[in-house]
Amino acid sequence: MPWLPPAIAPIVLLVISNVFMTFAWYGHLKFTNRPLWLVIVVSWGIALMEYCFAVPANRWGHMAYSAAELKTMQEVITLSIFAVFSVFYLGERLTLNHIVGFACIALGAFFVFKAPLPSW
């Protein structure tokens, strides 16, 4: 995405990628009356679109971020999108346990992006 700064493009692409991924992995939960083989085929089609955004996000993102930073970004984006998806699409509630767990993951992300701590 040459029109976006190298530090922003992977974030935008990872958000789009994770929307597709979340639907591929969890969207079928509303269609439990469909045969499993059909759900798998449809999910693979959706996952192909996810890869079309994830691969460029990581390739271009590696110019601005380390692989560990890209993976951390992807996980935080995934949890954020999943939280919204589970509430608005699946109709599930987020509990305090979920919030605390997500906060712990966010704390881990903070340390990945923080300046290096002293080595042992």
Quick recap:
The chain has 4 helices and no strands. The chain is mainly alpha-helical.
What report would you give on this structure?
70% of the residues lie in helices and 0% in strands. With 120 residues, it is mainly alpha-helical. It has one domain. Helix 3 runs antiparallel to helix 4 (96-113). The longest helix is centred in the middle third of the chain and has 26 residues, at 36-61. It starts with 8 loop residues before the first helix and ends in a 7-residue tail after the last helix.
Strand content: under 5%
Average pLDDT score: 92
Assembly context of the chains: single chain
The first-to-last residue Cα distance is 39 Å
Order of helices and strands: HHHH
Flag low-confidence runs. none
Envelope shape: globular
Helix content: over 70%
Give the SSE map.
Layout: H1 9-26, H2 36-61, H3 67-88, H4 96-113
Descriptive tags:
120 residues, mainly alpha, 70% helix
